[in-house]
Amino acid sequence: MGNGHGAPGIVRDPTMMRGPGIPHVLPHEKVFPIQIGSKLFRLSGASISSDAPSYFSEYFKCQLATAAERKENGEADHGIKTLYIDRDPTIFSDISRHLQGYHIQPRDGSHFVKLFADAQFYQLPRLVSQLFEDNIYISIGGREFRVQKDLFTAPGDTPNYFTLGFAVMFSSTDAVFPGLDRAGLLRPPSIVPPAVPSRSGEVFAELIHMLKGYPLHIRNEAHRAELLRDCRYFLFKGLEQKLIPHAISHNLQRGKDEITIRLEDIRQPGLSITFDAPFQTAPPTGPLARHVQYSDPSVSGWVHYMRPFVDTTPYELIIEISGECTRLDVDAMRAEFSGDAKKRMNRLVEVLANKINVPNARPLGLLMGSGAGGSQPDSPA
To answer: At what angle do helices 221-234 and 161-170 cross, to 10 degrees?
Structure first.
């Protein structure tokens, strides 16, 4: 209702037209003409003020100041000039709805970059902030996706392809056009919508399904390999560890939990060693030396492993080695490796040696042999 003297439903008090939270940058009840391309828009001062300061508010503030100056000088009032901008009126239709208080949602990646570029060009701080915090819009293998940013909060899943890639263009709400002078910019540069045509949209949809917390039926090892390949491409390290084939079981005889995992899937941060007795690399010295028991470096121990970003407890490690790359001498209890398996085993033993401060120059067989380790070569037994 108005002030009691007008028709029902019509507000005649200008102070009531400003709306809650809208600054009085321009007179809220006044209408300002803006022509975008071939279409004329008329927006109230309240709408323009709702996302200010902006290109529009500054332009019309200058117009109002000029009109006030002419009035003071007794000159004729020529009214407010129409602001003309040679941009797409279809995109501005969405922006005008934003200024009128409606929430606008980008339809796809192409629509998103157009809205974002024009919001920056028109210097609309609230819309830029909204789009900056919005979802990620991207085309994968020709299929459009809208990905919520909070899907990447799980350990190991960020930074990733999207947070790193989008940081180049959308790293700051103040600098979306790197290297360009905004003051002399006649129009924003063309921004290509984000797209990854070389990856599978179907596989990416399954990865997003898993990131949302849903289980996924892995049809076969070829299917698992596709998922792992794209996990590594998009840098979803946490999700990758969940997809790696493994088995966790309980050893009744030892009363310990064990994890079986392929040699090529072992990652250094997850490795640790637990010895059956305190491990020392040299006899103790000092007055109490004769009272301290020294453990020979060949004392037995157990290698433990926990999948990075996934497991919270280490398990005793059982390594699965596939392919014809291992020769086992049962009588001597000795294994010989070849090819990639040999390289990986050498690297594994070096990592374990570093974890217990054993010099690499010492025969690595000391770590795994049950005796006579000094006669073994540097490759692990």
So the answer is: 30
- What three-state secondary structure class fits 68? helix
Lowest-confidence segment of 62-71, 151-160, 172-181 by average pLDDT: 172-181
Average predicted confidence (pLDDT) for the chain = 82
Token pair, residue 85, equals 């901008």
Residues 165 and 276 in one domain: no
Number of structural domains in the chain: 3
Could you give the 3-state DSSP secondary structure of residue 20? Answer: coil
Cis peptide before 314 (omega within 30 of 0): no
- Verify that 218 and 267 share a domain, yes or no: no
Last residue of a domain, one of 45, 72, 104: 104
Q: Is 272 helix (H, G, I), strand (E, B) or coil?
A: strand
**pLDDT, position 359:** 67
DSSP one-letter string for 154-177: STTS-S-HHHHHHHHHHS-SS-SS
Share above pLDDT 70 across residues of the chain, in percent, rounded to a whole number = 77
- Closest C-alpha among 74, 110, 77 to residue 94: 110
Helix (H, G, I), strand (E, B) or coil at 171: coil
- pLDDT of the residue at 281: 54
Residue 193 is which amino acid?
Answer: P
> 159: cis peptide before it, omega within 30°?
yes
Which of 19-33, 235-249, 288-302, 365-379 shows the lowest mean pLDDT across its residues? Answer: 365-379
Q: What is the pLDDT of residues 274-312, one digit of tens each?
A: 887 655 555 556 554 554 444 455 567 899 999 999 999
User: pLDDT of 231-259, one tens digit each?
Assistant: 999 999 999 999 999 999 999 998 999 99
What is the distance between the alpha carbons of residues 131 and 203, in angstroms, rounded to a whole number? 27
Cα distance between residue 215 and residue 153, in whole Å = 18
β pairing state of 334-337 and 326-329: antiparallel
Statement to judge: residues 59 and 95 lie in one domain? yes
Q: Quick one: average pLDDT of 365-379? A: 38
Count of residues in the chain: 381
Question: Which residue's structure tokens are 């005889």?
Answer: 253
Residue 226: what are its φ and ψ, rounded to 5°?
-65, -45
Residue 10, domain CATH: 3.30.710.10
Residue with tokens 């300002």: 32
DSSP code for 195 = E
For residue 78, give both structure tokens.
Answer: 């020529």
